[in-house]
Amino acid sequence: MPEFTGHRDLRAYLRMVWRWKLLILVLIVAAPGIAYLMEHGKPKVYSSTATVSVSQVSIGNSINTSNIATIAALVTTSHVADIAGAHLHPALPGSAILGDVTASANSVTSLLTITAETGSPASAAEIANAFANALGIDQLQQNQQQLRSQISSLQAQAAPYAKNSQQRITFDQQISQAEAQLRTLSSGVAIVQPAAPNPTPVGPHLKRAVELGFVIGLMLAIALVIMLDSSDRRLRSPDDLETLTGLPLLAAIGPSAFSGALETTPMDEESFQTLRTSLTYFTVDDALNSVMITSPGEKEGKSTVAGRLALAGAHAGLDVILVDADLRRAGTTDKFGLHDHPGLVTVLAERRPVETVLEDWPLREGDLGRLRVLPAGPQPPNPAALLSSDAMRSLLSTLESQCDLVIVDTPAALAVSDTVPLMQYVSGVVLVARMSQSKRDTVHRLQKTLLAAHAKILGVVATGVSSAPGYEKYSQEYYALGSKGKRGGRKDKRPKQATGVQLRQAQAAQDAAAQQPSNGSAPATSEQPTGDVKA
To answer: Exposure winner among 49, 425, 505, 515, fewest CB in 10 A?
Structure first.
């Protein structure tokens, strides 16, 4: 989780939200939806309230209290509930209605509020009033029991004395006063406002449940995104790659460039031209004669980067030689359709001149550069030994002297040891990592391997970069030329360009026809392939 320190970090947060947008969307939609369904299925609930004034209550035989909070707690006891249930029509056990009632006290006014919630307005009012009356009945019974106990005690004390004795007369007067008090005794509980049926339901609370569900879903989404993003060891953005390695980001390549075709959209071509330009201007202090393209693991786009970089250099007027040094997978050989051709293995193992093996690749009309491809050739039993040999070092030196730039495609650097010797033979190394696939640990380990081999790391290339906040791209129309050569006009209606394999097949047929004599005359001279400008 990036620490928020400024504008760049805000973009990192936006990219994180964009990355987990589906999870966030699911949670903030699902949580309110679930809350709505749960609340929508509940029956309607009605509420009714009775207001009671209480001066003092008795608890047991010896405790009297005027604490309104204590009295409120007394309302929801099973004893009061049994009394209230007995006064309902029909009568119900106290346990059946006790859960429907709550009581709250106002310490300022000393008033008690008794609220009942049930599925019927009339039933709610009846239960609230029953509990209010039950509290009064309970207190009246408590007070009567106390007076009766007092009368019984006085009668027992007066019994030993004669009828006309002064002591007996005193006790008889006290007994008479207690009996008169018993006849006029009140509960001390007065119903200030009886409960009345309220036809407006108080539940279910659909709006409140949906709002609460949204808040819970949002909080859950934030917590999960933070947890998942912190535990995710994959590189998610070019900024992550650049920050991890401390190396310059040479280019960010979109997913469309890895469709299998040698040339895809103009936007992808511009990305590889950016890579070529970055290599040119990031290495102005040292001569860049050869570049090795490598990656930590497989399927991270290194072969595509190598091939498209070679094409970009040739389109820009450079004489480029592309070498497929991946003798195990031969990704570049596969992309250029050169499986059945002799290649690097033939040169190294059979001491064959490299000039007889290099394949001139046809370029577009008007391109001033040149591209030659050195395929991998037949798969050898000892790839590592061939690539670490003096012959390989000598070959690279020879190729560097014959062109402007040599681009070497290699196997995954952490998968096999073939790549390590080549690191010292080339002018620089470009590290390729695929977003949402390459892991931080593997990229860091590859960087340490390159540094330990004293390789010069030129920079990093992020592949599989989708459009996201901070990585916007121009639209397709920006790259298209209109009918008058202006940007943004009608799309170019030139015929679709043939693939490299189709161009090679056409060139082979043309060469074969040129070698056949016509009417005893000398054979016709074939034209030089398109793009083969430099000798």
So the answer is: 515
Q: Which residues does 208 contact at the CB level (< 8 Å), separation at least 6?
A: none
Side-chain-facing half-sphere of 127: CA atoms under 13 Å = 28
CA distance 428 to 461: 14
Give me the phi and psi of 267, to 5 degrees please. Answer: -65, -40
| Total residues belonging to the chain | 535
Q: What's the CA gap between 426 and 189, in Å, rounded? A: 100
From residue 411, give the alpha-carbon distance in Å to each of 332, 408, 427: 11, 10, 18
Class at the top of the CATH hierarchy for domain 238-465: alpha beta
Backbone angles phi, psi at 116, to 5 degrees: -120, 135
User: H-type helices in 117-232, by residue range?
Assistant: 121-158, 166-183, 206-231
160 phi and psi, to 5 degrees?
Answer: -70, -15
Report which of 345, 338, 357, 336 is spatially closest to residue 418, judged by C-alpha positions: 345
Domain edges within the chain? 13-42+205-231, 46-193, 238-465
The pLDDT tens digits for 66-107 are 788 888 888 999 999 999 999 999 999 999 999 999 999 998
- Give dist(CA 412, CA 432) in Å, integer: 10
Closest of 46, 68, 47, 66 to residue 58, by C-alpha: 66
Residue 360 CA to residue 319 CA, distance in Å, equals 11
Phi, psi of 193 (to 5 degrees): -140, 105
| Other beta carbons within 10 Å of 339 | 13
Please check whether residue 81 is in contact with residue 100, taking contact to mean a CB–CB distance below 8 angstroms.
no
d(CA 449, CA 443): 10
Cα–Cα distance, 332 to 376 (Å, whole number): 8
- The per-residue pLDDT for range 384-417, each reduced to its tens digit, is 899 999 999 999 999 999 999 999 999 998 888 8
- HEC sequence for 415-439: CCCCHHHHHCCCCEEEEEEECCCCE
In angstroms, the CA 213 to CA 37 distance is 11
> Can you tell me whether residue 506 is helix, strand or coil?
helix
Pairwise CA distance, residues 437 & 234, whole Å: 6
Would you report the helix, strand and coil content of the chain in percent, each value rounded to 5? Answer: 45, 15, 40
Residue pair 217/32 in contact (Cβ under 8 Å)? The answer is yes
